[in-house]
């Protein structure tokens, strides 16, 4: 990857990290909605995938904030 002369490569990495954290937060909320909707509609596959999304997003956020 190329950078302009005088640019800071760390700045680009911080922007990417912020976007990934935003996606994880969105995934956390989406997973909760999927779990609730799946349980109300008695669609266990939706609740299962929602729970997986909550676990994956939560694990990533915990890892990111405590590393």
What is the count of DSSP helices, taking H or I runs of 4+ residues? 2
- Count of DSSP E strands? 0
Coarse structural class: mainly alpha
Beta-strand content: under 5%
What's the overall average pLDDT, rounded? Answer: 87
Indicate the overall shape.
elongated
What summary fits the major beta sheet?
A: none
CA radius of gyration: 17 Å
Oligomer designation: single chain
**SSE sequence, one letter per element:** HH
Span between termini: 26 Å
Low-confidence stretches: none
What share of residues is helical?
Answer: over 70%
Helix and strand arrangement:
Elements: H1 9-40, H2 44-65
Provide key terms for this protein.
67 residues, mainly alpha
């Amino acid at each position: 990857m190329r950078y302009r002369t005088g640019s800071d490569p760390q700045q680009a990495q911080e922007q990417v990290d912020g976007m990934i954290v935003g996606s994880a937060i969105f995934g956390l909320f989406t997973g909760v909605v999927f779990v609730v909707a799946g349980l109300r509609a008695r669609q266990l596959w939706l609740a299962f995938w929602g729970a997986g999304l909550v676990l994956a997003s939560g694990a990533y956020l915990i890892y990111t904030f405590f590393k």
